[in-house]
Write a structure and sequence with these properties.
Largest sheet: 6 strands, parallel
Organism: Streptomyces roseolus
Number of helices: 16
Shape: elongated
Radius of gyration: 25 Å
Pfam family, one: CoA_transf_3
Strand content: 5-15%
EC number: 2.8.3.-
Protein name: CoA transferase
Number of strands: 11
Distance between the termini: 38 Å
Structural class: alpha/beta
Helix content: 25-40%
GO molecular function, one term: transferase activity
Length: 394
């Protein structure tokens, strides 16, 4: 089992980068946690009366804190400041002036009203990378609230998710927030690279709607390139088959057959080699055209054995398949595969999923648990760098 999680702070890839994090809820905090894992000193600026909304989003709770908050806020320092108070605003401005990156996801115009807009702060910190995360952009969509469920609905994701003819269905997590956080992180890293070459900061803008439309990939391409308006197909794929859920003897089994070679191997293993020679099924294009007939042919043989038995046999034959796991099963699988996906509590607090990127020379580190509200206010306002990563101060 892979367990080599670094527990001592090291010179991460982003060591020396200071992030003033005004982000709340998920997209911004998820992105800044990934930056923090890679060595950045992330200073989380929160309102004193409750802090980040997700601190109260429970149950469930662990160690007296909402697990929602815990899941995206490790390796950060919390500063509680009232931005409507002149002293609190001055302290926030001092943090911004020494930061390399600012992240915010207030409604467009809020930071400008506070005197923390891009044009204002760049006068004293021209190298600042200023990242704004919005729901629907800063122009025509500035007044629209950026909630993940709303964007999943209005951005088309729910129209292609769920059973055919049924009500649109959201993804089981706030997937748009997560995708947007990844895009925002990519934009910040690109802007830091540009600053390294030129010394110039710049504004980075990422919207939930734009990120979702980009992530719709093949469905968006079908619409823009061929005029198709995709609809929900349940667990089926519009362009590939068999790529769906079948009932094994004991529980559901997913098949994800991506080419003709895999299909021939499937047919041989289930005892129906003739299906691969049938003109209705010999090619993927033909299989898509005769999807219902093929599903009927495969259902009987697949129902004869357990999902685990099929998983072993078909995987050995190069046929992509697997059972539908719950999260307990998913983490158990990751453990068996040596991914080290779960962190021990002593590394960064309870309920922590490891950073998914492995770096040989500058691996992610887990220096501190998610902070209590205002835990680091005094030291940050005084300009004291984090003790566990002194290279991150400046």
């Amino acid at each position: 089992m892979h367990t080599d999680h670094p527990r001592e702070p090291g010179p991460g890839a982003l060591s020396g980068v200071v992030v003033a994090d005004f982000g709340r809820v998920l997209a911004g905090p998820y992105m800044t946690m990934l930056l923090a894992d890679l060595g950045a000193d992330v200073i989380k600026i929160e309102r004193p009366d409750g802090g980040d909304d997700t601190r109260a989003w429970g149950p469930p709770f662990a160690d007296g804190q909402a697990t929602y908050f815990l899941g995206v806020n490790r390796n950060k320092r919390s500063v509680a400041l009232d931005l409507t108070d002149p002293d609190g605003l001055a302290a926030a401005r001092a943090i911004v002036d020494r930061a390399d990156v600012l992240v915010e996801n207030f409604r467009p115009g809020t930071m400008e009203r506070l005197g923390l807009g891009f044009e204002e702060v760049r006068r004293t910190n021209p190298g600042l990378v200023y990242c704004s995360v919005t729901g629907f952009g800063t122009d025509g969509g500035a007044a629209l609230p950026g909630y993940d469920l709303l964007v999943q609905a209005m951005g088309g994701l729910m129209s292609v998710t769920g059973e055919p003819g049924g009500q649109g269905t959201k993804a089981g997590v706030a997937l748009v927030d997560v995708i947007t956080g990844l895009h925002a992180g990519l934009g910040v890293l690109a802007a830091l690279r540009h600053r390294e070459r030129t010394g110039e900061g710049q504004r980075v803008e990422v919207s939930l709607l734009g990120s979702l439309l980009s992530a719709l990939t093949n469905q968006a391409a079908a619409h823009l390139g061929a005029g198709v308006v995709p609809r929900a197909m349940g667990n089926r794929h519009p362009s590939i088959t068999p790529y769906e859920v079948f009932e094994a003897r004991d529980r559901p089994l997913v098949l994800a057959v991506g080419n003709d070679r895999q299909f021939r191997a499937l047919c041989a293993r289930i005892g129906r080699p003739g299906l691969a020679e049938d003109p209705r099924f010999a090619t993927n294009t033909a299989r898509v055209a005769h999807r219902e007939a093929l599903t009927a042919e495969l259902a009987g043989p697949l129902a004869a054995r357990t999902a685990d038995a099929w998983f072993e046999e078909l995987t050995a034959a190069g046929v992509p398949c697997g059972p539908i796991n719950d999260l307990a099963g998913a983490f158990a699988l990751a453990d068996r595969l040596g991914l080290g996906a779960r962190l021990p509590e002593e590394a960064a607090g309870p309920g922590q999923v490891a950073h998914p990127v492995r770096l040989g020379a500058t691996p992610p580190s887990y220096r501190s648990a998610p902070p209590r509200l205002g835990e680091h206010t005094a030291e940050v306002v005084a300009g004291i760098p984090p003790v566990d990563n002194p290279a991150a101060g400046r």
